[in-house]
Amino acid sequence: MKKQISILRCLVSSLLAMTMFCATPLFTACGEDSTEPVETPKKELPADAGAITQTPQEDGTIKLSVAEIAGAETYRWYKDGESVQNSADRTYLVRKSGNYKVAGVNRNGEGKASEEVKVTLLSELLPATPTKIDTRLLPDGSAEISVDEIERATSYRFYRDSELVQEGESRVYIDPNPTVSYGVSGVNEYGEGQACFVTVEWAEPYVAIEATKLAFNDIQIKVDVMGVAGYYAGNTMTEAFVAEDVLASLEMLTPSTQMSYEGALVEFPEPSGEVILPGESYTVWIVNQKEEGAYTVEDILTFEFTAPELTSGGSINVVADDPYLTQTEVEVELSAKGAYAIHLAWLTAEQMAACTDTAAKVEVLLNATQFEGESAFANSGTSLLLEPETDVYLLALAIDNEGRYGEIFEQKYTTLPEPKTFTLTISEELCSYTETSAEIHWTIEDGEAAKVVYYLAPADDNFWLSNLGESFDRAIEYIQINPAHANFKSTTGNSIEFTNLKEGTRYVFVAVAFDADDIPSMGDGTYFTPQSNVVFVSRYLEDGTENPEWTATCPTIQVQDFCFLKGQMTRLFWMVDLVEGTTGYTAAISASYVAETFPTAKAWAQDIMNDPDDAYSVYYWIPDDPAYPDPNDERGTGGVSKGAPSTQVFEDKIYYHPYGSGDMKIYVTWTDSEGRLYECVSADMPVIEAE
């Protein structure tokens, strides 16, 4: 044991001595290094890779190769930046297009890669393979072979029983002698793509006719014609069908090449033009076109059907509104709630006398004009040319969805007598107007009036604009024909006074006189605008200079900078600064509307201030008031902030118009302490960029 410890001590001492020897520098007698420093060996990477060579292979792949790279132990190939192979092989077989490069690799790392090359396989350059070939037999017995557009193809090759029969840009091939096998391939600058082939079993040529639906309101005939050069077709009443007449008519017809047809019989190819009548028997005929030889009766294929009859017993009846009568025609609105159709006919007194019973009237109606649906417009002017004071009869019946008709509607109407035997003329010099009233006078010549029917309304009234077309002549005619219309009133005498009119509003007045026999006169019409006696201050004096009184009291319009577009409308906000001692009124409206509606600046100013809550009123927003949030806040109801509507100006309020557009202007008028009314000042709507 002691001997072992002694040996261990000797080993430790030796190791310490060696450590001190290695840590102590060695010096020569002159104090200089006695040996040269040892250099660490440099680690060499493989040399830079050279260019890649591409070699097409018979199986459609492409072999990539690179010259030997000095110092490389393996070759690492990359596709689209990702390593795909690392081996001692200096080649790589490409089976998928992409961008390739290679670099040499050894135990010290990877050398500089080659320039990247783009590799495209021929299979991805050639046209794609067709997915489907369409085939159909044409009426003349030939076959149409077609294909959808093939990806990357610039032309198409068609094969018939594996033999090339057509090449070009057309995607359709017509085979005059159909066979059983066809193929199509695409072609481009790189060559021909893979072809697609189909096997076809063609049907024998045939003609077939059948009725798919026979209902009183829907007769459907289906016709299929396949594999023939063409055909003639028609339909006629069975009792009038004569085979020889059909054969004789073929010379005047053009054969149809329509392969198949299904639809309403009255739209059948080459129809006879007959209306299909209920209860009648009809024959549909088909004749196949011949290449040569005369047509015979045996060539005619026929199909016979009977149109379902309409029957009585329906519960839906026709109701007529009040007629619109003239001297030469009658117009009536008819309705039959729930009806499939309404049949109607106009008859003269002589024609009506010939309809001696209900059956005769029904026969007339079933052959008369039909309006599908539960309403109809009956106008004698489209059926009969009438004279004044002529009797005319209207017959109508309603057909329900089961083909049953209700009771016959029968009504006699008499056209109006010759009008215009005397004249009413408005006496403008006798008329007078105030701010809220008007007194209108007229004279009557060449006759005496039992009553005067008149029309009074604002000039922007919809009835005047739409029904009467802003025309005095049309309004006079309307009153002559229909004096009991709801928009018309009547009076006696030679004048009438109107009160409670709106100051500054333009009105239209039209009047027609009627004698004791209700014969109307030639009438007359006029426009007028009630005006007040308030003192009006114009912006300009007679010499064209600006009126200093107007200028001294003119308010300032401040368009707010938070106006913005929403859709096609500008949301418009403004404030008004008034001169002390004045009261203002404001509105935002189209300038063209103002120019067309108000004849004077005074009328426009009066219209704004007469009613603070009228049609021009806008909403105001009070800043810093939680009851009226910021109009630009898009939360809640889309940012629409509504305070109290008013055209009156309050200087602590912001006025708001949600739908500013076009030539809209902001207007302000005002009155002073003496009650004088001032001409409006205006500001243009700002041009605002959409958000």
Helix content: 10-25%
N- to C-terminal distance:
100 Å
Please report the number of helical segments.
9
Give the strand tally.
51
Rough shape? Answer: flat
Mean pLDDT: 82
**From the alpha-carbon coordinates, what is the Rg to the nearest angstrom?**
50 Å
Low-confidence segments, ≥5 residues, pLDDT <50?
Answer: 1-8, 14-31, 269-274, 634-641
The major beta sheet can be summarized as: 6 strands, antiparallel
Structural class: mainly beta
- Beta-strand residue percentage: 35-45%
In short:
The protein is mainly β and 691 residues long. It is 12% helix and 38% strand.
Descriptive overview:
This protein is mainly beta. Helix content is 12%, strand content 38%. The protein has nine helices and 51 strands. Strands 42, 43, 44, 46, 47 and 48 form a six-stranded antiparallel beta sheet that branches. The longest helix is centred in the N-terminal third of the chain and has 22 residues, at 2-23. The chain is flat. It starts with a helix and ends in a 7-residue tail after the last strand.
